[in-house]
Amino acid sequence: MLDLKIITKKVVFRLPKSKIVLFDAVNKKIVIDTILFQYDYFVLDTRGGEVVLNYRALLKLFKRILSFNNKSFKGYIKFIKKQYFLSVIDTINPTILLTYIDNDPYFHKICKARPGIVGIGIQNGARTHYNYSDKTKEKFNIPYYFVHGNHAKSTYISYGHQCKKIFEVGSIKLDYYMARFKSEVKYRYQICLISTWTSGETLNGVYPFSSKNQYNSLLQIKNVIKKQKYSLVVALKTNTQSEKDFYKDLFADTADYHYSDNDMGSYDICMKSKVILSTYSTLGFEMQAIGKDVIFFNLCSDKRYTHSSPNTITSTDNDKLFSLINRSISGNFYYKYNTDSDIHCVFNKPPSYELIKIFIDSKL
Description:
Blueprint: H1 4-10, E1 11-12, E2 20-23, H2 28-34, E3 41-44, E4 51-52, H3 55-65, H4 73-92, E5 96-99, H5 105-113, E6 118-122, H6 129-134, E7 144-147, H7 150-158, E8 165-168, H8 172-180, E9 189-194, H9 211-228, E10 232-235, H10 241-251, E11 255-258, H11 265-271, E12 273-278, H12 282-289, E13 293-297, E14 312-313, H13 318-329, H14 352-363
């Protein structure tokens, strides 16, 4: 006998008439808990977790497929995917299209194709020259963009991406943590290293976050830990043995290795550490925004990726790293962003999600 729960969990037949559509279900819990809980909304899963088989949406989709005249198979797949999203959205007929995945090209295309819908993008992770130019050839189109700080705003505009207005509000994930999960700070470690591991036996990345640059940073950290005997914890990205083995090959038993199934686990372990070490992670910029001592590494020659020179390591000489860690532990840490356009993340009152709700209310 078929388990109907399995089928209905994967397939959506009925579509509501909702005022808001959340585009992409990734991190939906944070968006729902902080913003959408008080509104009429529908979550459009864009990654295959759910498939909409609503007859009205399918009828729209079939009519649009017939108009396609590009012979490229890759172009045909992209066309169908875009038209599928548009058919579902047109059937729901929302006032607002919201996403927490601001770098999704399909969201940009849909905002361009449906200018009558209020498109709202919320910055999900660190955004810089790499994201807005070096890595992409296509122009973003985010009508109303809520970003972590001035760096995303100024860089986005400098590369000619489309928008009506950009708001610097901070990180909703950080604000969510600080409002609901933050506990009394009791330091367990002197140093927390934020993992940048992706997969395999090496750190994956392209310039300026190449495997070589990142690995050289880790060798510096290893030398400092070995010489000074600092307590170190590595905030792991995954619960895989291969990631843990990668760092254990470097630090062995001189470090603890922390992973939490809870999305807020990395924030917890950073809060319980005196010094945070980061290559170019969102978490590092968020911790700096709330006043934590963060040391960044930029071992490439591209100065665009050095945003606060006093606390950024730019060479393989260990002296500055020694000095910065010791200054933090002694309570004499100092940093300053090089310019206003280097500010990656702000931490404001009221929190970012309250400001987003105020904007949504103004459009409904």
